Amino acid sequence: MDINLIGVPIFYGCDKEGPQFGPDKLREKNIVSVLKKHNHKVYDLGNIHVPKVSVKDKFSYHSNMKYLKPIVTANTNLAHVVNMSIKNNNFPLIIGGDHSIGLGSISGVSSSYKNIGVIWLDAHADINTHETSPSGNVHGMPLGASMGIGHEDLTNLYYGEAKVRPENVFILGARDIDSGEIDLIKEKNINVYSPKEIREIGIENLVNSILDKLKANDVDAIHLSFDMDFIDSSYVPGTGTPVSNGFNVDETKLLLRKLVQTDMIKSMDFVELNTLLDEGDRTSDLAIEILDSVFECIK
Ligand SMILES: NC(=[NH2+])NCCC[C@H](N)C(=O)O
Ligand SMILES: [Mn+2]
Ligand SMILES: [Mn+2]
Hints:
Bound molecules: arginine, manganese (II) ion
Strand order of the largest sheet: 2-1-3-8-7-4-5-6
CATH superfamily: Ureohydrolase domain
Family: Belongs to the arginase family.
Helix content: 25-40%
Cofactor: Mn(2+)
Number of domains: 1
Organism: Alkalithermobacter paradoxus
Order of helices and strands: EHHEHEHEHHEHEHHEHEH
GO molecular function, one term: manganese ion binding
Oligomer: single chain
Shape: globular
């Protein structure tokens, strides 16, 4: 596999400094050589430009979407790089940054395929809108916006259509869901599995059933979006919104490896590493360990 490493040094979506250092931290930890170990060619495309705006302008663009304008700009740039990466037959590995960048990634991926699936590994559902969000943080909105739900500045990103059909979205590991999101999950019949439900079904059974459903829906590629807070909070001090009752490290690796072994995953986000909150380099080292394990299984 020819991998394009794409960094997105942004924290505007979570309104907490730290995630912007994620891409360079992983480079410092030799992410490129770790990926190359598994016989991939790796091209580091560098970091997407993120416009600098002052904290004073947080609410200047919208009253319940903080830093909206620079988020839209950075994500539009990201979408185009991701689209070109796939058109050139590469595998884009997008390193965050906060999870607002899922919108740019998915917009780029969806331009390259007819009908994509999205598997979102996260303690959160990230389907809030400006109307339901309790925080005004855009990193809680990208998956909803990708399905065409929310404010038009987000839903029209890169091109003016929904990027993924709700029936092709699978949220795994969710255990901290806001009330507006619960309503939306019911209304749109979105597939959500908590860690407890995944353990009951079994990791392998779940992956098989997701793949069967996506194939029945005629999906031609799957985008995998991995939020570090998917993992239980006891293992990931270096993430902005940690949640307990998550998977341990081995379960996480097993799930990710089973997912990529389907050969349907054609792009991946890795987000919400906050180096400023980390205990030493514990979470950064774990990030490397997980990516090492995942890319060992990608052909
Ligand atoms: N990508 C994340 N870590 N998202 C956390 C979202 C938290 C909360 N649901 C909100 O919308 O504010
Ligand atoms: Mn998230
Ligand atoms: Mn999350």
